[in-house]
Specification:
Elements (H helix, E strand, L loop, with lengths): L12 H22 L24 H15 L4 E5 L2 H10 L5 E6 L11 E3 L17 E6 L6 H14 E10 L3 H8 L2 E2 L14 E5 L7
Helix pairs in contact: 2-3, 4-5
């Protein structure tokens, strides 16, 4: 009679240890998130979902864009972040009481931010809640999720609907002509960086005199 146990694949002690370590880390991360000191607005508090084509900016880039947005919005200005959650998180982390911020985002995990979260699908560019009045934002920051003219064109409809005038667009360098065509924005000298390197060269575009040059 053969030993029945032979059929059961055994994990090596090394694999087991690695697995335990992984679960422990996960628990610690989740624990951190619920403990007092955790800042729900810090970049990475909601992790990237590549299936949604999400790529968070590096801390420095998010800070730079957030500061630019606050300056551009002016005192008691309103800022809309379209598909740019890491800039939204930085704006909230900065806690500048002078401005109010909205996040328009397809990923419902960001609904943890309460009333400032607005579900947004670029395929329905002006399917927005009535509370979002046309031309009610001093600046709109947008980072369309895909490098396609269709995505840019549709996101552009939303941007033009919401902004009083100022636009800060973050997208690939290859989109320069389309960005000019659909939004009248020009490339800045500032080079945005991501927490993980992207294959495509990434740039910022504006239609006003910004501090990004």
């Amino acid at each position: 009679k053969m030993d029945d146990d032979d059929d059961i694949p055994q994990l090596s002690s090394h694999t087991l240890a690695a697995l335990q370590e992984f679960y422990l880390e996960q628990q610690q991360r989740e624990g951190m998130k619920t403990s007092q000191g955790f800042n729900q607005y810090s970049i990475g508090s909601i992790e990237e979902d590549w299936q949604l084509s999400q790529f968070w900016y590096s801390d420095e880039t998010a800070l730079c864009l957030a500061k630019e947005a606050v300056l551009a919005a002016g005192k008691s200005g309103r800022i809309a972040c379209i598909s740019a959650p890491s800039v939204y998180q930085k704006l909230k982390e900065q806690d500048s009481e002078d401005v109010s911020v909205c996040i328009l985002e397809y990923d419902r995990r960001f609904s943890v931010y309460g009333e400032e979260f607005i579900f947004y699908d670029y395929n329905h560019p002006v399917d927005l809640p009535e509370s979002l009045l046309p031309h009610s934002f001093d600046i709109v920051i947008a980072d369309p999720p895909y490098l396609s003219e269709e995505c840019l064109q549709k996101t552009a409809e939303t941007i033009k609907y919401l902004t009083k005038g100022k636009i800060l667009l973050c997208t690939g360098a290859v989109m320069e002509e389309q960005a000019a065509k659909h939004l009248g924005v020009k490339m800045c000298k500032f080079i945005p960086k991501h927490s993980r390197n992207l294959a495509n060269e990434f740039r910022c575009y504006v239609n006003y005199a910004s501090g990004l040059d």
